[in-house]
Queue: 2 jobs
Job 1
Amino acid sequence: MMSGNANITEVITLLTPSELVGIDLRGGVAIVIDVLRGSSTITEALKNGASKIIPAGEIEEARALADEWPTGEYLLCAERNAIRVDGFNLGNSPFEYDPETVSGKDLIYSSTNCSKALIASYEADRVLVGTFNNISAVMESVGMVNRVFLICAGKMGRFALEDTVCAGMFVNEFLRDTSHEVALNDASRVAKLLFDFYHRDILKLLRESAHGNYLLTLGLDRDLEFVGQVDSERIVPELSLDKTYFFSTYIPKASGEEQPKSATKEPVVRTAAIAFEPNIDKFEIREVTSD
């Protein structure tokens, strides 16, 4: 992949938003990753014509924001533990955010994990939303910056396997994309190892993760299949300059594609091609069994 990231000198992975305490994000680009399912849901909503996404950390905050919004111009979107909150219009499945429902609407969005991670990242110069679906487009959007922060939403404040593997995929691509040495923190190295282990079967990863297994018990198999698609989207959600909402940037492929009506910034044309080339010469991951 050649995406104009030649200036990157450091990739820092945070396995949960709580690790942001004491971290100075200024001067860097933050990529917030919530594989199950916030990143894909936000991306799908913007692709299907939502005007903007306004994150709210808590349910009460979402309701308060709605009280200030013009009637008929917004939808209240919230879930807790993967279940839509009573009285809200939508939950957190990407399949709920179809064009007929979200086109032209402002979405006030609160989720168990993603919205809090987004808000915690606001100090960064730019905040992007990334996942397996839009990894090439996000890579191309990062631009000429020195430091990138991969912020995993986690699950209820704890480590989430699927977010970490996705972060490892980003680490893998940043390393492939530069000819010089890139500094990695320990979490980035671990994320890369996990990606090397799982890269051939992302759906298997999702099914084996604790969060993915929980969604399967709710009958949300389709959601796992959707969020596990690599490079299925060219939309990159990005935080507005006034840090109040997320809008969509459309990144066309090199061959050229028609820009969706939902895109709200001028497209940036760069070439991209995802390739999986795990390098595990120095590390191994073995199954360990106890006696």
Job 2
Amino acid sequence: LMHYAAWLARRWDDPAFQMAFPWFDSPRYWEEHILTLREQLAKLDEPPLVI
């Protein structure tokens, strides 16, 4: 997730990226991105799965 967002951020000045990923600079994208990161962090605190 972080690598993908960083890749988009590095390329953001390219007009083609702004057209291809118009949602990238929206507040909603970042709110959902942060929520996903928080969910992943919470999963790290869960006990490991037993198989």
